[in-house]
Each structure stands twice: as structure tokens, then as C-alpha cells.
Amino acid sequence: MKVAEIRKAFLNFYAERGHSVVSSSSLVPDNDPTLFFVNAGMVQFKDVFTGAEKRDYSRATTVQKCMRVSGKHNDLENVGFTARHHTLFEMLGNFSFGDYFKEEAIDSAWTFLTEVIGLPKERLLITVFETDDESAELWKALGVPAERIGRCGAKDNFWSMGPTGPCGPCSEIHWDLEEDFVLDNEPDPWGFGHDAGRYMELWNLVFMQYERYEDDGAIKQRDLPRPSVDTGMGLERLAAVAQGHKANWSIDDLQDLIRATGALVGLRYGEDPDKDVSMRVVADHARAAAFLVGDGIMPSNEERGYVLRRILRRAIRHGVKLGIERPFMHEISDLVVDRMEVAYPDLSARRDFIQKVVRNEEETFRETLERGLFLLDDAFSQLSDTESNELPGSTVFELHDTYGFPPDLTQVIAGERGHEVDMAGYEEHMGQQKARSRAAWKGSGEQSIAEVYRSLGEDGATQFLGYQAGLTGSSEICALLIDGKRVDRVEAGQRAELVTVATPFYAESGGQVGDTGDLETDAGRFRVEDTQKPAGPVHVHRGEVTTGHLQVGDSVRMTVNGPRRADIMRNHTATHLLHAALRKHLGTHVQQKGSLVDPSRLRFDFSHFEAIPPEMLRGIEDEVNDQILANVTLERFDTTMDDAVARGAMALFGEKYGDSVRVVEVPGFSTELCGGTHCGATGEIGLLKLTSEGGIASGIRRVEAVTGRGAFGYLRNLEERDLRIADSLKAQGGDTVDRIQRLLDDRKSLKREVQDLRQKLVSGGGVSGGPEAREVAGVQVVATEVEGADARELRQHGDSLLDRLGSGVVVLGSRDGGKATLIVKVSKDLCDRVPAGKLVGQLAELVGGRGGGRPDMAQAGGRNPEGLPGALEKSYELVSAALS
């Protein structure tokens, strides 16, 4: 079912059961000064529940637009990065004001989900308040098994409007995500036996059956004479479940907006995770902006207007990240109106207003970005006068703090200009705020999860058999875990963690990913999808029981995925060779700062302060491949830390070492401390091909490479690309480069001819003559537009005209798309009387921009090209005023 169909089905379902269909209220609550925005369906009925307001119906149903971007319900910074956080969302709700109570609320909710939406009953779980036997029995009467009904305390399943007023128990309906869940590493509070991340709340049924009141300074509770019902269910969540999606972003309404955003720059959703985040942010924020403006909220620096401004600017920043170089948010917000106007007719009536407000805010913010670009240009110019290629962190901080210029955008632009950015310095300036954020993040429930692994470590370290036994081994299961809890037995279909006394499976560490493979007992089989060391020396095999069962004490046969392990070993041994080659060619200051070794590639981060020239990269690559061709046998042995250091062994970044260490040596070339798995000889690597090199932080560079099968695949792709290029150019054999060069030469020649013709036309050398000078207070002034000229060409034309005049003022302008460019040239004898910088600044205002420069030459740019003719004509008046 599409979102619109679900929305309509919900309202029709409850309308047929005697509910009045009530329109969504404004996002701005009119009866609660404590709320910034309406954040739940019951807000518009708050006074009805308390008895302060009477309505002519006793049961109602709504689809309420809600916002959660302030107070404890602030989802803004999560939006785009998680599966289900949104700024604006729609809440489905049905309400009883002293009419029906638990039985009808529970029965209708179950009927809607299982019969109208068609959700399988076996994937729905129920929670009730710990003492609410009535609700539990009603669920059982509908056929919900007792084991799928959990009981919770007041924290999770009791609702109150405040210290006093209506309150009561809740009953929640949860969806079992089964395979499609993200591990929360939190035990579920309901006793269903799985990680909390497996269950997603769909619908909350609140039964207001009590009233809290103050009596002589004490809060007491009594039964309400007419109990009520308040329910709420997120439409986006329900749509994701009904449409079979793992994340809300895949539902049809949001996908329309995401695809439209990507289409602006030729991007497809699902191809680049970072760009996907930006497309999701734009889609979500366009919805929020359309509804907020539609409800009369204007961007400002205060209260609700500031929230709207933050939402819009965050979306625009992500648009810039995607490469959208013009105002676009009004277009996506207009698409929101198209999709939502049937459900929310007020949006359609305010369509033009929404477009105007959103576009104006974006244009204003883009001017802020433009000012930042001017300041960045100045900063880059200052860098060119020094030996440094790194933009100082203080500059990045100033741009962000004073001018609102996003630091991530500063990084992107600096990278495009070939500069590094001192983000470490920027972070230092952010200091205390960053420290507080990190402190808050660290307390996210790690303690209880780590405890089970620490207890396993007390039983002793896992013996790693991989160095001697290779890919196979036998051992005994000493522990089984499901969702962080120890169990004695696991069955087919269950996801679990398995610990053995010994294992040939390498656990992720030192940058090398964990092994995969299979474990088998006489009674069952376990597919290992990853191997980790979550705490201490214990190897934990993570995966799923595919057949039968396994239990603690079983003997187990263990087999590592051989081809995958071989690919990893090639990349790991190549990483050691690459490290040594980097130190040989760049210097011994090169130290490893991080690495990733997986089956498909290797990534190596190291200390170095400038980009590596292409010819040096080739030398490094050749050095590694020479070692591979030499097929040098590796030496691997255990020794003391002191002995390893004496041998010149380099330690691995981020690793901790004991008194006994393992050394991996390529004799005569590389010696490192390393516990990873490696080739027997360098020739097994086959080939190394560097694929990228760049800076990732101040003084930190990153190289990436492929080896073995990955390298051959990479080279085959390059070959196929070259063949396609040759075919497009109709080039024969090795003629592709020559063919491209001829095309470039032809283009360059044609461009030069065009420039020469423009020069002649402007300077008077053409058949039609040049622009006529006008005498102003005894001074020759030329002010004219040069079609199609860029700033450099305008300066050249200005020089030619000024040479022709000898003494005078030249003002030239051009238009390109939505921009105007102006240059002013003034002869030396007039600079004191008509300074070019002052004149261009006055003219810039007429084209919606700003400018500046020297007394003899100045330049301006603006976003109002329609104002250019008026600006040029105004030149004569301004020169006259300056001379008078």
C-alpha cells in the first residue's frame, strides 16, 4: 500500500466505527505555551481530555502533522543518518473521550493492522503495564500468545500528562524486524529474548483511567469517572513495514523527494552512502519547511523561525555537498505540496508563498556562502605567499563562528583547490563543546554489554590455531550468547555468538577484518559471518545456526573461508611492503596512523605533510612490485618485545603489546610487530596497484591499493574503459592519446580565435569599430557590455581600451547565466579622483553583489544580471559626481 492509501484506509476504518474525522491542527500549538511544535496527535485534544473543553463528538480520528526538533524530542542531527528519525512526521491516532475503553481500542488496533494492512500476526508483539492484567487478557482473547505479551514498568508503559491530571497505563504494539534489524546491544526490557534493536514500536495505546491530584501537598491518584483512550502510530513507520522496507526512507512519498533531489545533479539513490545521507536530509527538510511555512512560520533568528532557518540551512549545505550550485529547495518543497495537497489542502492554497519564502531564504544563505568563498579566496591567496599548503584551523573556525560558513564545506572547497585543512586546529577551537559532546556520547550503555565479554575473558584466552593449522581446526564450544546473554543451546535460525577453547578463525584486530566460514558439530551447523574480540583475548564467532542445534560442551569442527582468507593475507602482506616502501621513498618520519585490510582492498594512513608527486607514487608502487616479483619468503616468529625492538621492528598503530610479541619479516626489507595472517612468500600477492592517495587530516595522508585478484579486476576495468574511449573517438590502436590531444588543440585554437575577435570588437579593431567613449567633465569614459566574456577576458579588454584612451575610465560588464561580472580600469592620472575600488563598489549594488580592488583596477560580481545595463549607464553619473 502506498502512503496515501494507508492514510486514507486508517481514517476510513475509524470513520466506519463512529469516529469523527478531525483535520490535523497547525504545527504551532494554540493551547500549550510549553510546546514549540505539536509533537503528538493528542495535543489538539489536550483540553478535551482534561475536561476544559467540550466537543460534539466523543470519539475522533486524525492524521496529525508533527515536528520533533526541540526539547527532549530533538531529532534534527539524527535525520538522514538513521533509519527512522525525521523532523516532520505524520501520526495516525484514534481517541475516545469517555466513550469506549480498552476492549474496543485493542480490538480495533489489532483488526486494522492484521486485516486492513495485512501484517502477519506472528511478527507483532505486545507490551502492557506490569499490573495491567485486563489489557493482557484482552490481547490473549484475540489470540496473541502469552509469550508474545511483555510486561513493563512505569518508565515504558505508563503515561501521564504531568505531575497532575489524567494518566494511565499504555499498551504498545511492536513489529519484529527479524533479520532486518540493527543490533542495539541492549537487552530487551520485555523478555522476548532478543536484542532491543529487533523490535520497533508501531502503535502506542494509552488508557487514561486515573487522575493524579494534589491533596495537602501530596500527589494522590484516583479513578476517572469516564476513562479515555489516546493512541498514536507513526505513518512513515507503518508504511515502511507495510511496503516491506527496512528504513522509512524507502517509502514512496520520501523516495519521490529523494529521487527528485538526486536528479538535479544526475545522482541515483543507493550508489553512494554519503550522498544518500544528503539526499535524505534534503527530502526530510523540504517536507518540514513546506509545512512550517504553510503554517505561517517565517525564517528568523528567534524561536520557531530559528528552527525553520536551521532546517533550511542544513538542507542547503547538504545540497551543496551534492553539487547543487543554484537555489533548489523551493523546487523540492513544491514537490512536497504536490504529494501532500490532497491530505493537507492548506498546503496547496499557500503554494506560491511557500516557494517564495523558501527560495528567498536559500538565496540569502547562498550569499552567506558566497561571502565565505570570498574570504576563502583571500585565505588561499595568503597561503600562496607562504610555503604552507594547509588552511589554518583558526581560519576555518572564524568562517564558521563569525560568518556561518560550514567547516565541512570549507574542506570540500579546499580539497578542490588542492589545499589541506587543519581540522585538528579547528577542533581545538571548538574545545569544550566537542568535549561535552564526546562525554555525552560515551555513556551509551557500553558497560553492561562489555561485562559479559569480560566474564568470558576470566575463563582464559582463546587459543588461535591459524598460524599452525591454517584454515581448519577442532575444539569445544565453551560459551553461547544470544543478544549479549549466555545460553546453553542455540537452534536453527537463531543468530548467536559462539566461543570455543581454540579457533583457526582470525578475530578482527590490527586493521585486519575478521574471518568468516563454518562451524559444524554432530548435531548442527553454524555459519560464521564475522569474528571479533570485543573484550580481551576471547575470539567471538558471530553468525547464524543454519541447521540443527549447537550447545555448550559440543565438539566442533571449524573451517575458515579459504579464498577470502587468501585475499586478506595478500592485502595484509602488501600493507607491510607498502609501509616499508613509503618510509624508503618519503623518509623515516612516515609512521602508520591507521589501516584497513579486507578481502577487496587495503587502506593505509600515515604521517606525511604534503601530497606525493605522481612520479614518486610510481616509484613506491614499483618498489613493492619488485619485492613481489622476487618472491621473498616471509619469516614469522615470537620473541620478546625488547628483542623485536632491537631488530628494528615497527609497532602497529593502535595495538597493545605484551612481553611476548609476534614479528613478521620480509628479510632485508620490512620488519613489523603483527599478529595478523600473511602470505608464505611475497610472490603470492601477485601484483599491487595503487588506486588513490590523498590527505585525510592535518599531516595525515591515505593511500589505497588492490592486490591479487582485486588488482587484475581493477586493471581489466581500466582496459575496458580505455577501449570504450577509443571507440567513442574512432581511434585506432594506440592512437587514443594523440586523438584527444588533437581535439584539445583544436578547441584551444578555436577559443583563441573567439578571444581575438572579441578583443578587436571591443578595442575598435573590428569592422564595426569599438565602443564610443563619452566625455564626462573632460574625462573619456567607456562603459559597455561584452557578451560571453569571463573576468579574465574583461580585464584584457579593459587594458586594450585604456591603452587606446590614454587617459580615462573604462567600465566593462558581462552576464553568464544568473551572474553578472563588472571590472573598472582607471588611468594612473585619475586614480586619486576616481578610485576604481570605490566606483566598482557602488556599481556592484546595482547587480546584487559586492566588489573591490585597487585604485587603478577593481572587480565585482553579483546575482542580478538584469541590473547590468543600468549599472553601466550609472557609471557616467558616478564618474561625473567623483570629478565634481
Architecture overview:
The structure is a single chain. With 884 residues, the chain is an alpha+beta fold. Helices cover 40% and strands 26% of the residues. The strands form eight sheets. Strands 1, 2, 5, 6, 7, 8, 9, 10 and 11 form a nine-stranded mixed β-sheet that branches. Strands 15-18-22-21-20-23 form a six-stranded antiparallel beta barrel. The protein has a six-stranded mixed β-sheet with strand order 31-32-33-34-36-35. The N and C termini lie far apart (76 Å). Mean pLDDT is 87; it is low at 436-449 and 765-769.
Query: What is the fourth-level CATH superfamily of the largest domain?
Result: Bira Bifunctional Protein, Domain 2
CATH names the topology of the largest domain as: BirA Bifunctional Protein, domain 2
The CATH first-level class of the largest domain comes to Alpha Beta
Q: Please mark out the parts with pLDDT under 50 across 5 or more consecutive residues, or reply none.
A: 436-449, 765-769
Task: Give the helix/strand layout.
Elements: H1 3-15, E1 20-21, H2 46-50, E2 59-67, E3 69-70, E4 73-74, E5 88-96, H3 102-116, E6 124-129, H4 133-141, E7 149-152, H5 154-157, E8 158-160, E9 165-176, E10 199-215, E11 218-234, H6 235-242, H7 252-263, H8 273-294, H9 303-322, H10 329-340, H11 345-349, H12 351-384, E12 390-391, H13 393-403, H14 407-416, E13 420-421, H15 423-442, H16 446-457, E14 463-464, H17 466-469, E15 472-482, E16 485-487, E17 489-491, E18 495-500, E19 502-503, E20 517-520, E21 524-532, E22 540-551, E23 555-560, H18 562-586, E24 592-597, E25 602-607, H19 614-630, E26 635-640, H20 641-646, E27 660-666, E28 670-673, E29 688-697, E30 700-707, H21 708-729, H22 736-763, E31 774-776, E32 779-785, H23 791-805, E33 809-816, E34 819-826, H24 836-844, E35 849-853, E36 857-862, H25 868-883
Parallel strand pairs: 1-2, 6-7, 12-13, 14-19, 32-33
Antiparallel strand pairs: 2-5, 3-4, 5-11, 6-9, 8-9, 9-10, 10-11, 15-16, 15-18, 15-23, 17-22, 18-22, 20-21, 20-23, 21-22, 24-25, 25-30, 26-27, 27-28, 29-30, 31-32, 33-34, 34-36, 35-36
